[in-house]
Structure formats: C-alpha cells, structure tokens
Amino acid sequence: xxxxxxxxxxxxxxxxxxxxxxxxxxxxxxxxxxxxxxxxxxxxxxxxxxxxxxxxxxxxxxxxxxxxxxxxxxxxxxxxxxxxxxxxxxxxxxxxxxxxxxxxxxxxxxxxxxxxxxxxxxxxxxxxxxxxxxxxxxxxxxxxxxxxxxxxxxxxxxxx
Length: 160
Hints:
Oligomer: single chain
Helix content: 55-70%
Strand content: under 5%
C-alpha cells in the first residue's frame, strides 16, 4: 500500500470525517433534524453518505499509521465498499432504477412526506465523489507510479 509522508492535517481531516458522519448518524437514529444537516438551511445529509464519510475517515487514518497485512486488507475492503456504494448509487441516478440501498438502514420519513421519488438517496455529485475517492484509495494500494498519478487526479476531481 502507498505510504505517504505522515501529516497531522490528514489525521485531522480523517477525524473530522468520522465525527461528522457519527453526528449525522446519531441524528438519523434518534430523529434529531438538527444533527441530520450540517447547515440548517440545506438538505439533510443522508444516512448512507454519513456512513461513507466514516469509512473514508477510517481509511485516511489508516494511511497515517504503520499497518500490517490485516490493516492493508482493511484499507482495501473499506476502499472497495466506498467505491461500490458510490458506483451503485450513481448508476441508480443514471439508469433510473432502485437498488434498495437508499433506505437499507434508516427510512427517510422527511423525504417521503415531501414526495421525493427516491427518499434516502444521496445526490449524484456526492455519489460520483465517493466513487472517485474509493477508486483513488484503491489505486494507492498498487505499486505503479502511473496508477498513483491517476489516483491523484481522481482526488483532484473530488476537490474541484
């Protein structure tokens, strides 16, 4: 696995992702609308999005420590889950079908009340960003310089 120089900023960002995702999940579990949104005037963060934020935060933290074989497998598993969830969610929007992952864990009652066609589904741009982030993390697992550069460009797209 790619082992970048250790950075406190990466660790802080990973922790912020985990904390933010955890607060949003608590908001969904206990039906606290104030915790479901980061900013009150915006649309709520969906449960699946919060879970993927937590997974990406864990993956970021794993890059900051010397990890053994099992840590590398965990990193690959987390990156694969994030990639797959992003791709499936994005393909639901592109191909207009419902895979059933949007309300797998929590029912989005607020969206049902507003007659959204697919309650609980994250936005298409968020799905694309998760798919690109997961692919980039998987690319860092390989020992090919060109794949690392391509993975870096994927992260630049997410940032843009």
